[in-house]
Amino acid sequence: MLPLALIVVAVVTVVFTLWPVLTGTTRRFETSHMDTPTGRLEQRKNIVLRNITDLDFEFAMGKMAEGDHTSMRDALKRQAGSILEQLEVLKQGDAVATARPANRPAHASNDATTGPSAAFCVHCGQKLPTVARFCSGCGEKVVS
Ligand SMILES: [Zn+2]
Fold it and tell me: Which of 20, 42, 57, 136 is deepest in the core (most CB within 10 A)?
């Protein structure tokens, strides 16, 4: 009985540990994050900020001359500044481009809901595309 229990625990542990690898969840998440221009800039920003921290650390440890430290730090700060500027521009662009869908529930993102002839559910008041036969809010049959 005991060996069987141990085997079960071991299998569960291995599956649980490898689950993200087996299903590709982690990789998919990272890929989709990195695929956006904002994600790439965020990563560059993090690298530059880490470089500044490393630089300060090396200077503090006495591994670097003050002049070198100052000029390299200035260069990194300029880099970080330009990345932050690009991020700002991108985020503002994203806000304009995606403000509407981002603030709406997925089931209501259909553009038909915003048409001049859009209907409303008589049961719950959910705005509906005119082609909808069932309410996306409460699931009731749409009465037209
Ligand atoms: Zn409804």
Answer: 136
Confidence of residue 7 (pLDDT cuts 50, 70, 90): confident
Q: How far is the CA of 139 from the centre of ligand 1 (A)?
A: 6
**Rounded Cα distance, 135 and 120, in Å:** 9
Domain interval for residue 74: 22-103
Same domain, 131 and 65: no
Contacts of 91 (CB under 8 A, 6+ apart): 38
In the reported structure, the alpha carbon of residue 99 is separated from the centroid of ligand 1 by a whole-number distance in angstroms of 25
**CA–centroid distance, residue 144 to ligand 1 (Å):** 13
Check whether residue 74 and residue 135 sit in a common domain: no
